[in-house]
Design the sequence.
């Protein structure tokens, strides 16, 4: 299926879904502390989405081809977990780093965003990885404008990650998003500038680089979802949903608590 361009009215609904996804990340921030379980964070977010926001948690029972239905409402990926970490009875401890990935459906449209959280004080290496990954996401977002190519996004992200001695996960990518959770195009976080699809106003997609402190290789755990680094090195990820606008880009997953853009 081809890339879906959103109308002005659809973009308005994407803005609402995007803000609501970001507001779940705001809401959960105060609960990320030593001693809490990832399952408790899931339950708090689920309740907030369903009962406070009137949104549908898109991950719950999500089953793309080849996967069993995802059993929870959010993804919580700790330390060497790269993405799709399934919440459960794991207790967070000081020094852990955690990605929380939220996707809501509101009025037929999806908003998808993730942030990194520190449990207590992070190590110097962990902080550096999280900061570099944030800058990677922003370097990818900042090249978005009509006429830019998808390869420009990947190249900007890859260059920054590798300049810091980190590596880009290849198996997962950003994605078009709208009425469906994952639409075309695939937004790779590595690649060659000047190649790939030319961006047009009305496209909506995510930029969500997964950056490893060590080697890029990953593997899937027996739960069929959780992805970890093969070498057990730390991994970080940040995600925004963006729209291509006439003048460049618009970040759709913005809320009061969204961290300021990387400088
Ligand atoms: N939110 C993830 C993404 O950014 C997808 C999670 S799929 C799930 O694309 F089923 F694990 F929730
Ligand atoms: Co996404
Ligand atoms: Co996501």
Sequence:
């Amino acid at each position: 299926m081809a890339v879906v361009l959103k109308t002005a009215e659809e973009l308005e609904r994407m803005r609402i879904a995007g803000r609501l996804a970001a507001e779940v990340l705001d809401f959960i921030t105060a609960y990320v502390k030593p001693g809490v379980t990832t399952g408790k964070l899931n339950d708090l977010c689920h309740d907030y989405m369903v009962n406070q926001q009137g949104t549908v948690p898109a991950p719950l029972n999500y089953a793309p081809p080849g996967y069993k239905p995802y059993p929870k409402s959010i993804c919580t990926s700790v330390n060497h977990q790269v993405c799709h970490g399934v919440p459960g009875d794991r207790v967070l401890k000081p020094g852990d780093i955690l990605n929380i990935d939220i996707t809501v459906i509101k009025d037929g449209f999806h908003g998808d965003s993730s942030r990194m959280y520190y449990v207590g004080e992070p190590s110097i290496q962990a902080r550096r990885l999280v900061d570099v990954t944030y800058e990677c996401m922003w370097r990818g977002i900042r090249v978005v404008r009509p006429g830019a190519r998808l390869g420009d996004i990947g190249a900007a992200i890859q260059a920054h990650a590798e300049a810091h001695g980190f590596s880009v996960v290849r198996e997962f990518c950003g994605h078009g998003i709208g009425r469906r959770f994952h639409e075309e195009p695939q937004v790779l976080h590595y690649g060659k500038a000047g190649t790939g699809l030319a961006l047009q106003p009305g496209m909506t997609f995510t930029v969500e680089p997964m950056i490893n402190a060590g080697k890029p290789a990953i593997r899937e755990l027996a739960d069929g979802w959780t992805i970890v680094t093969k070498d057990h090195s730390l991994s970080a990820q940040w995600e925004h949903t963006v729209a291509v606008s006439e003048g460049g880009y618009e970040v759709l997953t913005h809320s009061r608590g969204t961290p300021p853009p990387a400088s």
Summary: The domain at 8-251 is CATH 3.90.230.10 (Creatine Amidinohydrolase). Residues 145 and 214 are 32 Å apart (CA to CA).
